[in-house]
Amino acid sequence: MTAAGRPAEPEVIWARPQRAGRGPRPAHSRESIATEAVRIADEEGIDAVSMRRVATGIGAGTMSLYNYVPRKEDLYELMVDAVSAEYELTPPTGRWREDVLGLARQARALMHRHPWLPRLLSPVYGFSPHALRYLEHNLACLAPLGVSGGEKLELIAAVNGGVAAFVANELALAERARSLPWSEDAEQEVRMSWLGSRLATGEYPRLTAALAEGTAGAVPGMDMSAVFDRSVSRLLSAWGADAAS
């Protein structure tokens, strides 16, 4: 350990005991630390999360917090694991596409509840207790799919990455709308008017047709939940076209 109580070598936070075999019971728990960090991130954004803010929130000294969480990266891992407990992992139905789509919908809702989550998603944090529970359940859902275990993990990663990118775009659009000095409808009206003038030139026939058919995600009023479902379903179709559905 270093003088500040941080590990001198790499370690996994989950392999570190929460308390020694002897001595007084710790005044704080990983759960209370993670809960406070998540609260701060939910209310103020991930950039507001610091060891000092979390320590203050739980009534601890900043340096004493390092006895529980040696690094800020460990704090992030605790946060990701804490919100991963929110998944409702119901028994698989045997229809793997439906089951995985259901998990993807939950992931989207989870990221909207915790808008900081897409920024922290990383394979580094992929093996915490609740993340392992999620992966095991996902693989159970994929049991009917006739591909290797490695390919199933690739599919899970692809879906999670797609969900994160989709939600990040939704959150960015929502943040932009909040920052406008006028209504979003007024903004869209001006932009769509300009776009209409470009399409009227006849230089973009394919784009004109696509917009007319309502298949572009950027069309105002588009049902983004339906767009999300189609996007995930098409991704799933790339795996196991001949496997059980």
Residue share in β-strands: under 5%
Residue share in helix: 55-70%
Q: Look at the structure and give the mean pLDDT.
A: 85
Ranges with pLDDT <50 over ≥5 residues? Answer: none
Distance between the termini: 52 Å
Shape: flat
Largest sheet: none
N to C succession of SSEs: HHHHHHHHHHH
Structural class: mainly alpha
Supply the number of structural domains: 2
If you compute it from the alpha carbons, what radius of gyration comes out, rounded to the nearest whole angstrom? 23 Å
Instruction: Tell me the number of helical segments per DSSP (H or I, 4 or more residues long).
Output: 11
What's the total number of strands?
Answer: 0
Write up this protein:
This protein is mainly alpha-helical and 245 residues long. It folds into 2 domains: 13-84, Orthogonal Bundle (Arc Repressor Mutant, subunit A); 96-179 and 214-236, no CATH class. The protein is built from 11 helices and no strands. The protein has helices at residues 30-44, 51-58, 62-65, 72-84, 96-113, 117-120, 129-141, 149-179, 184-199, 205-212, 224-236. The longest helix has 31 residues, at 149-179. The N and C termini lie far apart (52 Å).
